[in-house]
Amino acid sequence: LLVSKDLGKHLLEVEDLLQKHGLLEADISAQTERVQALNAAALKFSELEGYQPCDPQIICNRVNHVQTCLEELGELAGKRRKELEDSRQLWAFFQEMEEAEAWIREKEQILAAKTCGRDLSSVLTLTNKHKSMLGELGSRRALLHQAMKRGEQILAKKRFSPGGIQEKMREVRLRWKKLEEVTGLHQQRLQEALNFFQFSAETDDLVAWLQDTYRIVSSDDFGHDDYSTQALLRKHRAVVEEVEKHRAAVLALRKQLALLAPEHRQGVDVQIRVVEVEQLYGEVAEVAVLRQQWLQDALAVYRMFSEVHACEVWVDEKEQWLERMEVP
């Protein structure tokens, strides 16, 4: 049993052999106590004085022989355990490699099936999931690094043929490298999609603001007197300031578009959208200038009416005073 060359062909078999070997070691330990007791009893016969049933030298030789055999048995048991533990380490390494390959295949399938989303919300959801996957990748990378170190240790012992170990380590390293490349590419595509949908969302917000502002600056309400027109003019000047503040955002659209991925920036729809925003902003700015001029003209008219009205009141007062005047 102890000189057997059967070291198992997979991890479960090695574990089973180690359990059996443990039972054998326990049996040897039990027999050791029995042998020591028998040897001690036998040596007493070599120490008798007078009548001796056997030659003391034969007894000592026999005791030494049994003790030597027991020691050799212990050495064989220790050697067998070391070989089995090395075998377990080897098959545990191969099992870790297989688990790593299975994990890599699973992630490759997930990445192959993943899209980059159809709107900003879906892209953000996919980005968060991808961040979780990157965390898993980091944890698995650390485990794989430890497994590779154990493989190097097995190779350093030179107890097993290095061919299978080195080939397996090379395969797993190549697959891991490919997985990291695919993960990086997917992350890049997600970022490009995120940039595009953020650009689209910001453009839509800008268009909505410009449309609302256009309705405001194209209003035909110019007030009905000096006071109301002045109030409208103050509000309009605030709107004009906001329009001017948005000029930089409109001018930056071209630069933002140039930073997008080719597949996004070369789309006809997005280019048309940018042109529409620029044209709409130009119309808003132009109408805002016209409305400000019209409000100023209306204010000048109402002020003239106010001055004319004041003159009329003054004239009426003087007429009434002259009519009531008694000339002596």
From TrEMBL:
Keywords from the named record: Actin-binding, Repeat
SUPFAM superfamilies found in the cross-reference section: Spectrin repeat (SSF46966)
Pfam hit, one: Spectrin
Keyword Plastid (UniProt): no
InterPro entries referenced in this protein's UniProt entry, alphabetically: Spectrin/alpha-actinin, Spectrin_repeat
Annotated coiled-coil segments of the chain: none
Keyword Repeat in annotation: yes
GO molecular function terms listed in the Swiss-Prot or TrEMBL record: actin binding
Source organism superkingdom: Eukaryota
Name listed for the protein in its UniProt record: Spectrin beta chain, non-erythrocytic 4
Gene behind the chain: SPTBN4
